[in-house]
Specification:
This protein is α+β, with helices and mostly antiparallel strands. Among the domains are: 49 residues; 55 residues, Head domain of nucleotide exchange factor GrpE (Nucleotide Exchange Factor Grpe, Chain A, domain 2, Roll), CATH 2.30.22. Helices cover 63% and strands 15% of the residues. It is built from four helices and six strands, in the order H-H-H-H-E-E-E-E-E-E. Helix 3 packs antiparallel against helix 4. The radius of gyration is 42 Å and the shape is elongated. It starts with a helix and ends with a strand. 8% of the residues are buried. The mean pLDDT is 82.
Length: 191
Amino acid sequence: MKKQNKEEAAEQEKQTVEENQSSQEQTEEVKENETEKEVQPELSKEEELEQKVADLNDKYLRLYSDFENFRKRTIKEKGDLISNASQGVLKDMLAVLDDFERAIDNNQTSEDAESIKQGFQLIYNKFNNILTAKGLKPMDSKGEVFDIDHHEAITNIPAEDDMKGKVVDVVEKGYFLNDKVLRYAKVVVGQ
């Protein structure tokens, strides 16, 4: 029994020592934290105000730059809308332009009066000049490499090695409006 009591007393003493060590460590940590707080000096009123001014100035500059970006973006969007506002009308007029080109091609072989041929050519030239002034440009597709961004393939035909992957024939002309595709060219591609 005495042996057991001695062992229990030794264990209790050991636990007490461990508790004292952990409480000392906690006390030292608290003291370290307090000294760290003491090391950092408190900001004076002037310094606080200067920091607030710097923060507000930073926020102002960010807001101003965001507004400038927004303004520039809206100006660009308005310019795009204005430059492409006539897109629908011009797209509808392309059918008339195509008909004029077909009529001129058919009149080349007919025996009609020369004045009728000249009349067709004059009307076509005037109409084409007006559309060109509005930003319409025809695509030159024949012999070019097939590009899905500009061409619509109607069919593929067997072709010589130098024409593989290129446009062999144009079924319907394509057009650009201010460097944007207005109508894709319908083409036959060599394979």
